[in-house]
Amino acid sequence: MSLRRAAILACAIGIAKAAGGASAAEPPTLQERMSREEFHAAELDKLSPDALKRLNDWLAAHPTTVTKLVTPANKPVFYTDDAPRERIETRIDGLFTGWTGKTVFKLQNGQEWTQSQSGRYDGGKLHNPKIKIEPTMGGTWLLFVSGCDCDSLRVERTK
After folding, report:
1. Which of 30, 68, 101, 144 allows an S-S link to 77, with CB 3.0 to 4.6 Å?
2. What is the pLDDT of residues 35-74, one digit of tens each?
3. How far, in Å, CA of 115 to CA of 153, rounded?
């Protein structure tokens, strides 16, 4: 595993971990940020002591501040309050038949959005229809499906 790959993986896994008792002057090491299982799963235990020290030194020199990772309801945060929210244009990955209450929309760009308002709509059958998801002033998102004789639908990103 390259040092760069290990650093990226370590940041992704360990960023949300508690400092593990490290002082404010000394940033926590990966061993303090991660559980043994996480450390092993990331194959960081295969690094030499010198390589692990270089990785910890690099992480200490490149601190990352994360203000939110999940909501109080433990849902992932995809857009921070100060992040720009722009229209998304892609296609639904597969068959679109409408929505039924908590429908999950899998998109060709890899994202997943879930219906966040009540209601049902029988949309017939559209294969890979174009969609737009637009931010609202109130912080929510609206889904528009091309070729669908339906209103917009309030959705929230889940992946």
Report:
1. 68
2. 888 888 888 899 999 998 998 888 888 766 554 456 667 7
3. 7
Cα separation of 8 and 34, whole Å? 14
* Alpha-carbon span 141 to 128, nearest angstrom: 20
Q: How far is the CA of 130 from the CAs of 91, 125, 137, 141, in angstroms?
A: 4, 13, 23, 16
At 157, give phi and psi (nearest 5°).
-75, 135
Distance CA(74)–CA(134), nearest Å, equals 24
The residue with tokens 């991660």 is 34
Q: How far is CA 84 from the centre of its chain?
A: 15
Both tokens of 144, joined, read: 């528009």
The whole-angstrom separation of Cα 148 and Cα 92 is: 12
| Beta-sheet pairing, 141-145 with 130-135 | antiparallel
Decide: helix, strand or coil at residue 110: coil
- Nearest-Å Rg of the Cα atoms of the chain is 21
Residue 157 CA: distances (Å) to CA of 47, 54, 103: 37, 37, 12
